[in-house]
Amino acid sequence: MAELSHNCILCGKCLDVCPLLRATGREELGPRAKSDLCRVLLESPARLSEEDAARLAGLCLGCGRCREVCSQSVDVPSLVAALRGAHPDFKSWLWKTWLTRARRLWSPSSKAAGLIPDRFRTERLGPMLKTLAGMSGGPGLDPFLTPVAFPDAFRGGKLLLFAGCTANYVQGRWLTAALRLLDGLGADILPGDFQCCGSGLKGAGFADESRAMAEANVRVWRQAGRPRLAVFCASCLAGLRAYDCFDSEAEARQWAESLLPLSKAVRGVEFETAGNAPERMGYHHPCHAGKNDPDRAFLAAVLGDRLVRATDTQCCGFGGVMRLAAPGLTEPVNRKCWDALAGAEVVLSGCSACLAQLSATAPQGLRVGHWLEMVG
Asked: Is 0.70 surpassed by the pTM of this model?
């Protein structure tokens, strides 16, 4: 970490792409300032109190856009994650508990959060309660695409499906739609008891717990014979791509080649559009989807002129543990996102975390959903 924090050449590329800096105008919240902070703490740990370090560690969305453009390979989200791991606080513990006990907590918590009256939502916890309620997605979307012809590319092939925590515990309709599409493709879906992808824990500084989840998921893949692994959450896909717990470089390459975005698998499917299809749709590009976003390419192909708005440089403002640490700073980021989507009747995305945030903050009358929800 020390070497990475010293590599900055002050080029400013990271400042141009940071959604938090763009929304707030506060350069002290930008990637370069965080890199400098980590350097100072490495050189003189006593210069900041435990409380100050924990507070500052929370002020990062973890979107990774700065990492993508840095010519010196400075990985600010990883630096911040290490800082969070070295200075855990109650918010970090709460986030860890939420992610490690998803099976038991997510469904009842999401339902309960939606029932709490606004007058009982404190200024501090109100935004997070809205996000919890947004996980269930409200009424969702009315399907308007029907598959009418499937290619033979996957017929008879064995696949594992990594559905992710949200689909497994809160949004069962996503999982149902994904299985229906894979069945139409003729794929043989193998059973696999996957854990969380671990990316949320890794970003919050819980590296050991995240690695344990990664190792468990890789074992499932090995035991199934190392088949293709279909994924329909952009954040899960990014987390799986970042795994580094393999026996050899050859196995690491095989893992990378096995990861299959579901939207890429269904690009050859022919769909029939029903009369209830919205005329003006928007797409939110998740930060973790990177430049070559397969969901965006799929939607552009299948929706055509109906796709009238899309985000590019905007972040939804979810920010993981930052949603707990500094909700007020995430709100202007979220407003920038909605400004870019203005005019859309329906907003689609392929990231479960983004969808929770967007569902919680959507303007009245605007519907939000995973692109799987449009498939009937």
From this structure: yes
